[in-house]
Amino acid sequence: MPTVNLAERNLDQLESNWGAKYPKVIESWRKNWPRLSSYFQYNKDVRRIMYTTNIIEGFHRQLRAVTKSKGAFQSEDALMKLLFLVQENICAKWNKPVHYWNQTLAQLSIIFSDRLKLNL
Which family does the entry's similarity section mention (predicted)? Predict the structure, then answer.
């Protein structure tokens, strides 16, 4: 699992390889490093949940693929019906439980106690 030290070493390597050509990019990364590296403060179970944003991106990509392949829609209602059917097909595939969800939820409730209220 990646660590903050490994990420910092990779950032140093990125700077040595590309810093002369793209100094503003490296400067931006350095300036925002505390925010960018905050990900590493969480344990592996919480990080795994953070990876699920790829699911959202994939969902949007599948919706775009369907709408892009159509030239035009007869009406907004036709578009909405198509999007509804596509999302039904996409969501039907989401049947896998999240691994270690109980441990992850416990960690999230500790980290975000002010925002996450559990009724246990």
Answer: Belongs to the transposase mutator family.
- Among all chains, which residue has been given the structure tokens 């980290």? 111
The whole-model pTM stands at 0.55
The position carrying tokens 């910092």 is: 8
Give the end-to-end CA distance of the chain in Å, rounded to a whole number: 31
Long-range contacts of 48-53 (CB under 8 A, 24+ apart): 48/99, 48/100, 48/104, 49/98, 49/104, 49/108
Per-residue pLDDT of the chain (120 residues; tens, 9 = 90+): 788 999 999 999 999 999 999 999 999 999 999 999 988 888 888 887 777 667 788 889 999 998 888 878 899 999 999 999 999 998 887 777 777 888 888 888 888 888 887 776
d(CA 103, CA 105): 5
CB atoms within 10 A of CB 106: 14
Place of tokens 């140093």: 12
